[in-house]
Amino acid sequence: MLFRQLFDYDTWTYSYLIADEATGEAALVDSVLEQVDRDVQLIEQLGLKLRYCLETHVHADHITGAGKVRERTGCKTLVPENAHVDCADGYIKDGEVIHVGSIPIQAIATLGHTDSHMAFLVNGTHLLTGDSLFIRGCGRTDFQSGDAGAMYDAVTQRLFTLPDTTLVYPGHDYRGHTVSTIGEEKRFNPRFVGRDRQQFIEFMANLNLPDPKKIMEAVPANQQCGMVAAAV
Question: Residue ranges of the Metallo-beta-lactamase domain (predicted)?
Answer without folding.
Answer: 12-172
